[in-house]
Amino acid sequence: MKSCKGRIWKLGNDVNTDQIIPGRYLDNYSPSHLASHALEGARKDFAGAVRAGDIVLAGRNFGCGSSREQAVMALVHSGVRSVVAQSYARIFYRNAINLGLYAFSSAEAYESFEDGEVAVIDLEAGTITSEDRTRAVRLGSIPEKAQEILKYGGLVPYIKATLAKSRDG
User: What CATH number has the domain bearing residue 24?
Assistant: First the structure.
């Protein structure tokens, strides 16, 4: 992924994993089931209206609460490819990288963009820009090793590719 264009879904501070995917839906881990309940605890309108490429913009401590990977799975399978938050709960951030979800930090982006507007995230430039190009904000960098994992779509595909390269060469 070189860029991501989509609608911004703006959330507040301390959005926890139970708001991202409520525990009552964890009886079924199928991607479509999780996606159909994504962010149900924070935005009832999200799962029915989200589109591929949409961007979640959040305040501080996004993904706090439990360590459930299903929170990231619900977002990824709903079509979200990137989250921009002021800060993350550490385990959510790690799960995001492991499951192929770009997780950028930026306090300025939260103040600069509104719910419902369309923006573009440019991975190479490390920016989020309004669709009309009147506003651009620099995003915090993702560590180099995490970027490499993300290029493969997550940790498991990265390891499989690494093992295949070592066998073949």
Answer: 3.20.19.10
